[in-house]
Specification:
Pfam families: ROK. The protein contains 10 helices and 12 strands. By secondary structure, it is an alpha/beta fold. The structure holds zinc ion.
């Protein structure tokens, strides 16, 4: 038995087959070509399903960018990255076409569940997941379940205001968390302070070479990151925070920077029970989480 798992990102669609025990049996990827719109995207999804579907397939789990009402499998908001995507009820479309169960959920929520099922959050019931990328995405798991909120768009941590009258954000507001603590923000900060355009990997390489200037930039950026974390810790009192995105490759090195910074801001008893971990399932987390939700739906 297997599940077809699809993870739709802004630039890439990852897809594959996942076993009922959470093993990724097969995986591959193709370009999203988001600007070509929803019809093109649907064609790609159909092609993937028709390539992978066999007599052992029990359902389709889809993780995707954007604000998604996972209870009904519909895209309800977000940016217009994929024209026509908002308003699409993918679950309805797929279940009608293929006559097997399907789910659709936001990618960070899926990553959180994927990490809970087969990664860094195994055995944890109350934890948060934050992904650092172009923006900052969030997922909240309480008592082993996603906290979705009234209209299913909870955990948009990236738009919490942390600086008054700060940098303009795409959401219309100023000073949003993601404008200071995302990967985009780190690159901007490095360019402002040092006057050189480097990518994330290059910045961390400089830090590993004991380049003090870059260490200061990373420390400042991490300080913004933990400003947001401190607020979230006081609200949720989590036992674990999983940090995902490209920076998770920095492992314990970055984890220690975050931890040190947090110690200056958060009361001890909150931190004593809190673990910070880098995501372990990287590119597979979205597919795993979508598969986990599919299994929950069938149950
Ligand atoms: Zn914003």
């Amino acid at each position: 038995m297997n599940i077809i798992a699809i993870d739709i990102g802004g630039t890439e669609i990852k897809y594959g087959l996942v076993s009922l025990r959470g093993e990724v049996i097969f995986s591959s990827s193709l370009l999203t070509e988001a600007s070509k719109g929803v019809e093109q995207l649907l064609e790609k999804i159909y092609k993937i399903i028709e390539e992978l579907k066999n007599e052992k397939t029990i359902g389709i789990g889809v993780s995707a960018t954007g604000q998604i009402d996972g209870r009904i499998g519909k895209v309800v908001g977000g940016t217009n990255l994929i024209p026509g995507w908002i308003g699409t009820n993918l679950v309805e479309i797929l279940e009608k076409k293929y006559r097997i169960p399907a789910v659709l959920e936001n990618d960070v929520n899926c990553a959180a569940l994927g990490e809970m099922w087969m990664g860094a959050a195994k055995g944890k019931e109350n934890f948060l997941c934050l992904t650092i990328g172009t923006g900052i995405g969030g997922g909240i798991v309480l008592k082993g379940e996603l906290l979705r909120g009234e209209s299913s768009v909870a955990a948009e941590f990236g738009h919490i205001q942390i600086v008054k009258n700060g940098v303009q954000c795409g959401c219309g507001s100023k000073g949003c968390y993601q404008s200071y603590a995302s990967m985009t923000a780190l690159l901007r900060l490095a360019e402002e302070k040092i006057g050189k355009k480097l990518n994330g990997k290059e910045i961390f390489n400089e830090v590993h070479k004991n380049n003090i200037k870059y260490k200061e930039v990373v420390d400042e950026w991490a300080d913004y990151f933990t400003d947001g974390l401190a607020t979230l810790i006081y609200i949720f009192n989590p036992s674990l925070i999983v940090v995902g995105g490209g920076v998770s490759k920095q492992g314990s090195f970055l984890k220690e920077i975050f931890q040190k910074s947090l110690e200056k801001k958060v009361m001890k008893n909150y931190l004593e029970i809190l673990e910070i971990k880098m995501a372990e399932r990287g590119n597979d987390a979205g597919m795993l989480g979508a598969s986990y939700l599919l299994l929950e739906k069938i149950k």
